[in-house]
Amino acid sequence: MKSVKVGILGLGTVGAGTAEVLSRNASEISRRSGYDIAVSMASVRDKSKPRGCDCSDFALTEDPLDIVNSTEVDIVVELIGGCDLAKELVLKAIANGKHVVTANKALIALHGNEIFSAAEKHGVVVAYEAAVAGGISIIKSIREGFSGNQIEAVAGIINGTGNFILTEMRDKGRTFDDVLAEAQELGYAEADPTFDVEGIDAAHKLTILAAIAFGTPLQFDDVYTEGISKLDLVDVAYAQELGYRIKHLGIAKKTETGLELRVHPTLVPEKRLLANVDGVMNAVLVKGDAVGNTLHYGAGAGAEPTASAVVADIVDVARTLDVASQQRVPALAFQANAVQELATKKQADFETAFYLRFQVKDIAGAMSQLSAGFAEQNISIEGITQKEPEKGQSTVSVIFITQKVQEGMVDEAIKQLESLAVVDGEAVKIRVEHLN
Fold first, then answer.
1. Are residues 158 and 230 in the same domain?
2. pLDDT digits (tens, 9 = 90+) for 200-216
3. Could you tell me which of 139, 101, 120 has the C-alpha nearest to residue 315?
4. Would you please indicate which residues are annotated as catalytic (active-site) residues?
């Protein structure tokens, strides 16, 4: 049996998990791939530190270039994270004729167009299943399983940290800051949680999903991104009273007027499967013209779930070692010469329903003034809820659920209504998606 030598850049949580899975399941992997696949080298920052896996069967180095330049390595697995050094090493590996597997969503989202172009030039594969939703294998599903479909939309919970926070806020009535502190203690959130809670991590992943769903270049800069750090606990509670749950979604839709690429808190009807994905779990809904709606659920992070995706990529690459490059599955699902630029819609042109909460003075005629403001903008209202005034308060919460409408029209209505004497403070606006 032919052997395939793997070099791992970075032996942290996922790197150690990858080495462990390759070793533990070596026999099963050989049966599936037809190759004897094993780690031959791994790079670490400090060889003296203990590792989360048995390193006795492969060499350790503190210089990642040793792996990228080694004639003994067939597949380079990049797991160091970040962009600058990772990009340098990946491009060097490609130039050396080595195949690459990476779990680095930021690297692919920001520099994937350049990396895939280099890979095509040198006739090598760059695989990145673990970059999105950990062990769910959503990249393979879209790129291969749905290749007979015109994909209309992709929507998902693709950041476990944010989903954990929202679940705790809803189920236990805890504040955002309180749950975030626990998420950091549990290791779900970094010391600087910005990428997770402000939607940047999800935007990286949505960039990748949109490209392979619609056959476009990667376009991170066109993703509208909004986090969950400003969500008020009262809106989480009100949403549930109205039959919704708030989820932090990445949504990509192909419309007649362009692509909608957006990450933001979203009200989802509580009976939808996506609304019931809780804790740190991930789920991605894919809508195709032939297959309809499909939901893909599983662990989006963690050592072995992510290692599962990394090892699957290694097996896929091994299977193509003797296959001509033009017969391989394209990196972005579509043939390179068929990847096309599509217009992306601006925020004002997004079309969805909205949850709008106003603090309104508890006086006669207030509701009629708000209703008139919506009518002036031709915004249809699905439902209105007025809460009872809190003890000692002179204002009440009034919640509107609109029908589907352009966001620019809603923003203009909000601007006008906030100027009314009966409205106190700024309105709260959260998008609503039924995801049919």
1. yes
2. 999 999 999 999 999 99
3. 101
4. 205
